[in-house]
Amino acid sequence: MDDKTRFLTTVSGVAFAVMLVIVQVGIFLGMLESASITIDRMDADLWVCAKNTPNIDFANTFPELYVHRVRSIPGVLQADNLIVWFVTVALPNGAKEAAIVYGLEDFPRWRFPWDVVSGDPADLRRGRYVFVDDSAERRFGTFEEGEYREFLGLRLKIIGRTRQARSFTTNPIAFLDYRVAQALAPLDLRRRTTYIIVKLEPGADVEAIRAEIRRRLPYNDVRTKQEWADRSRGYWVENTGLGLSMFVTVFLGCLVGVVVVAQTSYTATIEHFKEFATVKAIGGCNADIYRIIARQATISALVGFSIGAAMAHAVRPLLAGLDLKLIIHPTLVGNVFVGAVALCLGASLISFRKIAGLDPAVVFRS
């Protein structure tokens, strides 16, 4: 009975550690994906932005006419201005909520937005219209196509819905025509833009074109899609303590697992001291006993990992209801599995040390 209870305790400790690590790292990956999801989905090879722009959400402006300098460079297939801007949205109940608007002249050309539920993004060019992401319902309340919302005092008609368009700050994203976006904040955006997105011709030399853009626009930064995505994600990791928070949580989860496994393993070793002494007395060696303890630890790791991984997958719908995206990559699961086995084997080392000094004569004592 004690062995069963001890085994369940060990498995519970491992399962808790596994679930905590998978969930914490999975949420971390989900948040990082949101920090760069629009960059990843936009069909652009290069991004031109104002100097030292920290990430895609916190954009600075520069003259919109710069786009013509980029378009004239050999090897550039297309280049357009893009506005990314924080706005406040007035709700029917009188409250106000924040959103991020993306303004483009031709959304279909850039295959953006990427997950359209209803409506045609090409219709945004027709006037004061807007696409709103489904995630806005959590902040804005329910809304339907054909309804109106005020964005910075400008009344826009909702003509479509999207999915998955949410920023790192959980602010929903809205899509509207470039000129309409400028009309939202005329003092800041009149004849100005926040980005130039660039699509290159097949086989074009990326670095040569980037160098030419830098020569023509010396006061702007030019980044590849991957560089810009990495910078946007890195900003939140470095400036919000997100990375440290994840590390601390993972460390505490592993610590709990190690303590539980080490304690139960050591207790089991002490209680079976005479049995291990018998193994030595009949010719066994420390290695034989180590294998027995290691096998027990491995079984605990396998069972605990299976339960913990299942629990992590089970909480995904609950987290989705809280607007938290949990990403569980096979690589993450594989690494956690290896870590769980290593955790249990490492926790068993304290038992190994006790066995090393075991005297076989213990078995002959009363």
Concise summary:
With 366 residues, the chain is α+β, with helices and mostly antiparallel strands.
The total count of strands amounts to 12
Return Rg in Å. 29 Å
* N-to-C SSE string, H for helix and E for strand: HEEHEEEEHEEEHHEEHEHHHHHHH
Low-confidence sequence ranges: none
Largest sheet: 6 strands, mixed, barrel
Query: What would you call the structural class?
Result: alpha+beta
Shape: elongated
**Mean pLDDT over the full residue set:** 82
Strand coverage percent: 15-25%
Q: Mind explaining what this structure looks like?
A:
The protein contains 13 helices and 12 strands. It has 366 residues and is α+β, with helices and mostly antiparallel strands. The strands form 2 sheets. A 6-stranded mixed barrel has the order 3-4-9-6-8-7. A hairpin with a 2-residue loop joins strand 7 and strand 8. Helix 1 (2-41) packs antiparallel against helix 12 (330-347) and helix 8 crosses helix 12 (330-347). The longest helix is centred in the N-terminal third of the chain and has 40 residues, at 2-41. It starts with a helix and ends in a 10-residue tail after the last helix.
